[in-house]
Design brief:
Subcellular location: Cell inner membrane; Cell membrane
CATH topology: Sodium/glucose cotransporter
Keywords: Amino-acid transport, Cell inner membrane, Cell membrane, Ion transport, Membrane, Sodium, Sodium transport, Symport, Transmembrane, Transmembrane helix, Transport
Oligomer: single chain
Largest sheet: none
Protein name: Sodium/proline symporter
Helix content: over 70%
Family: Belongs to the sodium:solute symporter (SSF) (TC 2.A.21) family.
Catalytic activity: L-proline(in) + Na(+)(in) = L-proline(out) + Na(+)(out)
Strand content: under 5%
CATH superfamily: Sodium/glucose cotransporter
Number of domains: 1
Order of helices and strands: HHHHHHHHHHHHHHHHHHHHH
Radius of gyration: 22 Å
Structural class: mainly alpha
C-alpha cells in the first residue's frame, strides 16, 4: 500500500471531511435534545437524505449487486418491497410521529415516546423497548464494522485486525463529538456520494459493453433466465422478499429522522426527495449487478475476484473502468453507506442508555452537560462491544442482520404504526404488541416455518395482539386528549 495510492488519498480526504463535520456539529450541541435529536431542527433535505442514508448500509453497494449478478432480476423483489414499505412509512408514520412525540412529553427516543404516549408509570414499557434496541442494534453495529473492515482489507491489503479499527475509528469519532447533527449532516453528504456512484457506474458499464442492446444480448447469452423475475422463486419466496418493507415501521434509526424534523410541513417535501433518492439508488444498484453479468462474461480475464466473491462486483467495476482518483471516490461510497448506518445505530444505542436508563432511573436531576457527556461515553461503550463482537468475522452473530431487521419490524413496527393512527390503543396493547412480535420472530426463525420470512407473521400477530388487548381496556382521558391534540396539529400543518 503506497501513500501515493489515489484511492488511499481519497479515503483519507473523505474521512477527514466527515470528522470535520463532526466538530462543526459540536458547536451546535448544547443539551441532550441537541445530541440525540439535533434540537428537532432538520430541514426537509437533511431529513430526507439522512433517513435514506441511515437505512442503506454496505448491503446497497455490495450485497444486492452481488445477488443480482449471481441470480438475475429475480433478486430485485426485495428492492420493490423496500420501496413500497419506505413510502408507506413516510406517508402514514413520519408526520404523525413528529407531532405525537412532541405532544407526549417532547419524547427524544422511542421508549420515551411509548412510555409517555401510554402513561406507563411502571417503566416496564420503557425498559423492554430499550433492551430490544440495545440487543439488536449492538448486533447491527458489529455487522457494519465488519463490512467496513472488509472494505479496508480488500482495498488496501491491511490485516483484518488493523482494518477493523481503521474502518470504525472515523465513524466513532464524529458520532462521539457531534451527536445527531453530525450524523445527519454526514448522512446527507454520504447520500449524495452514494447516488453519484450508483448513477455513474451503470452508465459507464453500459458504454464499456457496447450499449443497451449489446449488453442485454450478452446477458441473455449468458443465461436467458436472468431476465425472469420469477426464476427459482415461489409465491412464499416473493412474499418473504417483499416483506422486508414491513421493517421500516419499526426501525429506530429511521424513525428518529422523522422525530427530528423541524416541522410537519417539512415531511411532505422530505418524502418526495427521499423516495426519489431511494428509487434511483436501488435502480442503480440493480443495474450495476445486472450489467456486470455482461461485462464480466465478455472479459473473463478480469472476472476472477468477482467469481470468488460476487459481492465484489461494484468494487471491481469501479477499479477497472475508472481513473484511480474517480475509483477512489466511488469506493468511498461503500464506506459512506457503512458509516452512515453505523453512526445512526451507535447514536440510537447511546440515546437508549442515556435517556431511558441513566436519566430515568439513575440521575433524574442530571444536568444537560452531564447527560451529553454520558451520551458520548455510551457511544464509546457500544462501539467497543460491537468491535469485540466483530473481532471474529465468522461469528454467527453477524448472520443475524435480517433477524434483527425482523425483530425491530415486528416488535416495534405495529406499535408505532397503530399508536399514531388509532386513539384507542392502550398501554397493555402496546406491551402485548412488542412481546408477541418479538417472540413470534424468535420462534418462527427457530423452526423455519413454511419458509416464510419471520417478519410477516410477527407483524400480523403483533397487530392482532395490540387490537385484541386494547379492546379489553380503554385509554385514559389524558391519552385521548393528547392524541386528539397531536392529530389536529398534524392535519393543520401537513
Amino acid at each position: 500500500m503506497s501513500v501515493s495510492n489515489p484511492t488511499l488519498i481519497t479515503f483519507v480526504i473523505y474521512i477527514a471531511a466527515m470528522v470535520l463535520i463532526g466538530f462543526m456539529a459540536y458547536r451546535s450541541t448544547n443539551n441532550l435534545s441537541d445530541y440525540i435529536l439535533g434540537g428537532r431542527s432538520l430541514g426537509s433535505v437533511v431529513t430526507a437524505l439522512s433517513a435514506g442514508a441511515s437505512d442503506m448500509s454496505g448491503w446497497l453497494l455490495m450485497g444486492l449487486p452481488g445477488a443480482i449478478y449471481m441470480s438475475g432480476l429475480s433478486e430485485s423483489w426485495i428492492a420493490i418491497g423496500l420501496i413500497i414499505g419506505a413510502y408507506l412509512n413516510w406517508l402514514f408514520v413520519a408526520g404523525r410521529l413528529r407531532v405525537q412525540t412532541e405532544h407526549n412529553g417532547d419524547a427524544l427516543t422511542l421508549p420515551d415516546y411509548f412510555s409517555s404516549r401510554f402513561e406507563d408509570k411502571s417503566g416496564l414499557l420503557r425498559i423492554i423497548s430499550a433492551v430490544v434496541i440495545l440487543v439488536f442494534f449492538t448486533i447491527y453495529c458489529a455487522s457494519g464494522i465488519v463490512a467496513g473492515a472488509r472494505l479496508f482489507e480488500s482495498t488496501f491489503g491491511m490485516s483484518y485486525e488493523t482494518a477493523l479499527w481503521a474502518g470504525a475509528a472515523a465513524t466513532i469519532a464524529y458520532t462521539f463529538v457531534g451527536g445527531f447533527l453530525a450524523v445527519s449532516w454526514t448522512d446527507t453528504v454520504q447520500a449524495t456520494l452514494m447516488i453519484f456512484a450508483l448513477l455513474l457506474t451503470p452508465i459507464i458499464v453500459l458504454l464499456a459493453t457496447g450499449g443497451i442492446d449489446t449488453t442485454f444480448l450478452a446477458i441473455e447469452a449468458q443465461d436467458p433466465s436472468n431476465f425472469d423475475m420469477l426464476k427459482n422463486t415461489t409465491f412464499i419466496g416473493v412474499i418473504s422478499l417483499m416483506g422486508w418493507g414491513l421493517g421500516y415501521f419499526g426501525q429506530p434509526h429511521i424513525l428518529a429522522r422523522f422525530m427530528a424534523a423541524d416541522s410537519v410541513k417539512s415531511i411532505a417535501k422530505a418524502r418526495r426527495i427521499s423516495m426519489t433518492w431511494m428509487i434511483l439508488c436501488l435502480g442503480g444498484t440493480v443495474a450495476v449487478g445486472f450489467f456486470g453479468i455482461a461485462y464480466f462474461s465478455a472479459n473473463p480475464a478480469v472476472a476472477m475476484p468477482v467469481s470468488e466473491n460476487h459481492e465484489r462486483v461494484f468494487i471491481e467495476l469501479a477499479k477497472i473502468l475508472f481513473n484511480p482518483w474517480v475509483a477512489g471516490v466511488l469506493l468511498s461510497a461503500i464506506l459512506a453507506a457503512v458509516m452512515s448506518t453505523l453512526s445512526c445505530q451507535l447514536l440510537v444505542c447511546s440515546s437508549a442508555l442515556t435517556e431511558d436508563f441513566y436519566k430515568t432511573f439513575l440521575r433524574k436531576s442530571a444536568s444537560q452537560v452531564e447527560l451529553v457527556w454520558v451520551g458520548r461515553a455510551m457511544v464509546l461503550l457500544v462501539a467497543l462491544i460491537a468491535i469485540g463482537l466483530a473481532a471474529n468475522p465468522n461469528n454467527r452473530v453477524l448472520g443475524l442482520v435480517s433477524y434483527a431487521w425482523a425483530g425491530f419490524g415486528a416488535a416495534f413496527g405495529p406499535v408505532v404504526l397503530i399508536s399514531v393512527i388509532w386513539k384507542d390503543m392502550t398501554r397493555n396493547g402496546a406491551l402485548a404488541g412488542i412481546l408477541v412480535g418479538a417472540i413470534t420472530v424468535i420462534v418462527w426463525k427457530h423452526f423455519e416455518l413454511l419458509g416464510l420470512y419471520e417478519i410477516i407473521p410477527g407483524f400480523i400477530f403483533a397487530s392482532l395482539a395490540i387490537y385484541i388487548v386494547s379492546k379489553m381496556g380503554e385509554p385514559t382521558k389524558g391519552m385521548l386528549q393528547r392524541f386528539a391534540a397531536a392529530e389536529a396539529d398534524f392535519r393543520l400543518n401537513k
